[in-house]
Amino acid sequence: MTTEPVAPAVVAAPVVEKPRRPSLRAGLLRDVFRMSGEKSGPRVGLVILGFSALFLAITGRLVALAAFPNDQVGLRRATSNAISAARPDIVDRNGTVMATDIRTVSVFAEPRKILDKDEATELLTAVLPDLNAKELRDKLGTKKGFVWVKREITPRQQAEVHRLGIPGVGFVPENKRVYPNGPAAAHVLGFANVDNVGIAGIEKYIDSQGLQDLNGAGLAVQASDLKPVTLSVDLRVQHLLRDELLKGMEKYRALAAAGAVMDVNTGEIIATVSLPDFDPSNPVDALEKDRINRINVGVYEMGSTFKALTVAMALDTGKANINSSYSTAGGMMRFGRQVIREYRGGTGRTLTVPEVFVHSSNMGTVKMALSVGVEGHKAFLRKMVQLDRLQTELPESASPIVPQRWGELNTATIAFGHGLAVAPIQALAAVAALVNGGKLMTPTFIKRTAEDAEAVSTRVIKPETSEAMRYIMRLNGERGSARKADVAGYFVGGKTGTAEKVINGRYAKNKNFTTFMAIVPADKPRYLFLSIYDEPKGYAESGGYSTAAWNAGITTGKVIERAAPILGLPPRFEPPVAPFPLMAKLGAWGTR
Amino acid sequence: MIKLLHVIAIGALVSSALYAYSIKYETTLEAEQLQKLKAKAQRERDAIAVLKAEWQFLNRPDRLQALADRHLDLQPLVINQVVRLSDIPNRGPKVDSIGRKLEDLGLGLPTETPRNVKSNNSTTPGGRP
Q1: In a 10 Å sphere around its CB, with 0-12 CB exposed, 13-18 middle and 19+ buried, how is residue A524 labelled?
Q2: Chain A residues within 8 A (CB-CB) of chain B?
Q3: Mutation for B interface: A100, A102, A174, A277, most B CBs within 10 A
Q4: Which residue, A85, A90, A347, B98, has fewest beta-carbon neighbours within 10 Å?
Q5: Cβ neighbours of A103 in B, within 8 Å
Q6: Among candidates A219, A424, A178, which has minimal Cα distance to A306?
């Protein structure tokens, strides 16, 4: 009996041997489950493999936990692209806060975790009454992991929402941008939206400097880690400029006004105002058409202030010297069908260069420009950045309107500031270069030193020409059209400019665009003041005149009077001794 | 001998375990404390930021000017109010004009003060009817 079952096995053995070789896997499996000790190698191997995998998984998890130690990983990921990032403070040149972040709290919900959505909606709208119930219910009905309920709530509201105790509703601290100074320097600052992303002005410039990339990488979430941005603006001067322009706008019934103060040696803009303006904390009307930054974005025909450029060009190219003279006989010049007239008939005399400037003679400046020629005129204006877009830190800028075909007539009209529309900041940069010794530098809204400015400046005119420009501007401030701004003790020099506005392609006789530029002090200029009025009207004391001297000139005088002590300019009791030595040596008109 | 070694080893083991436990406990405590202080510092920083913003908000030039116009009768500085030190005239001889006026009115006598009043019931200095 016992031998019988053995026999088939012995017989079967050679038969089984055949399929065994091809199926190696089956053999291995069989070895794993074999109970005998000498063939347990594969089984031990399997166990080693299993445990190794287990330990690897544990190690991996430990490393992951150590590297990202936050237990709120899911929530953080959900909020990281929604939460408002920290922004650096913006301070003025004296360290006064212009824009800062404060911490507020926003309510969010995780719809997946809310059990009774209708109840949650009801409770939340009871505490936050300005929420739209239907919208909120729709938001909570979604399958999203994260939705905002309300941004930037008050601490009291936070306490009330907290007391509701709805599961799945929580708070996230957020940064809110505040502009404590109201509309002061609104156009420079620009503003940031609810996610603290810069939309305009310096705020946008900060973002373009790599702040948003930092936030995207999850860095720099604290405002204290970020260095404050120091503007070139002086808040006190900014305020008084705005104040004087507001008063002026009311008095002269102008449509708009603008002004700027610039440090001519560093190219820093100390103040810039464009009215009407807006409050960056509540920028609902910032994008309206009349709220543009007229200094940077508006382009205007600058009128007679442009004559300074023409005179400088003639002097610098050597086509004229300070004693050259120009005939204004007849009071008019013909260019084909076009006629260029002197203002109110002119003097009819032969005028020297300083006289041309002081009497604001159109004919004199036209003759100077023509002596240089069309190409020379173009080249000079290009060198003075009047023909190309001037780019500062502010993202807002405008291209000047340059005539398509530039002939002799264009050169003639541009010589006295008509036919070429530039942004006032371009004119500021050019005039600053004319009076600071001939160094052109791009205006900046960020504080910088004179040495840094020197490094980025280019020489455009000779120092001698610059002295001549200072001299004729002072002469104009003393006895010309800029007398209204001649604040005693500050040795002011200046130039008025009245351009007729173009309405429907024609110059309107009674609608003026008035500008005034002043340098203080004229013998060694430190600051350049600019005031602009759009369509000022005449008033009783002006005898109905609405030319620049009667509005922009008076405002500039008041601004100088208020700003000079703040800017650290001491008044002088005697006129400076030999302020223009070269002019005196050449015996220019007015020195004797 | 070996038994003693065992006892020492076990003792060392137990004490080191106790020590490790207490260290761990303390560390947790300190970590909690640190977290609390960090949160507190953050709250303070936030409060400082709010106060700074508020300070500037209250000190904004528009508001200061409006308040000054309403409550002060100061006038803006005019250039010709600034003078040099050498232009200031020398001070005249010192005259006690109030004293002279009192003298003229016959009120120049010394007033009765508590020091030379004998009674204690009055503490108010000054003349008496």
Answers
A1: middle
A2: 96-97, 100-103, 178, 180-184, 223-224, 235-236, 238-240, 243, 487-490, 561-562, 565, 571, 573
A3: A102
A4: B98
A5: 46, 49-50
A6: A424
Residues of chain B with pLDDT under 50: 128-129
For the record, the structure tokens of A407 come out as: 């002939």
Euclidean distance between CA atoms A379 and A362, whole angstroms:
21
Nearest to B53 among A178, A488, A565 (CB): A178
Q: Where are the alpha helices (DSSP H) in B59-120?
A: 61-71, 97-105
Q: Do A184 and B62 touch (CB under 8 A)?
A: yes
Provide the shortest C-alpha distance from residue A126 to chain B (in Å). Answer: 28
Query: pLDDT (tens digit, 9 = 90+) per residue, A143-202?
Result: 777 888 888 888 788 888 888 888 888 888 888 888 998 888 889 998 888 878 888 889
* d(C-alpha A432, C-alpha A440), whole Å: 7
Dihedral sign computed on CA atoms, order A126, A131, A136, A137: positive
Task: Mark yes or no for CB contact B61/A180 under 8 Å.
Answer: no
Q: Residue A179: which of A101, A258, A81 has the closest Cα?
A: A101
* Percent of chain A residues past pLDDT 90, beyond the cut: 29
Residues of chain A positioned with their CB less than 8 A from the CB of B82: 489, 571
Check A304, A457, A531, A546 and give the catalytic one.
A304
SS3 content of chain A, % helix, strand, coil (to 5): 45, 20, 35
What is the predicted ipTM? 0.71
**CA nearest to B63 within chain A:** A181
Catalytic site residue A304? yes
pLDDT band with cut points at 50, 70 and 90 for residue A446: very high
Q: Which residues contact A96 (CB under 8 A, 6 or more apart)?
A: A235, B56
Q: How far apart are CA A425 and CA A396, in angstroms?
A: 12
Which residues lie across from A494 on neighbouring strands?
A518
For residue A138, report the phi and psi dihedrals to the nearest 5 degrees.
-65, -40
Q: Which residues contact B65 (CB under 8 A, 6 or more apart)?
A: A239, A243
Distance CA A479, CA A476 (A): 5
**Which helix (H) or strand (E) is A489 found in, with range?**
none
Does residue A66 register a pLDDT over 60?
A: yes
What is the number of helices (H) and of strands (E) in chain B?
3, 0
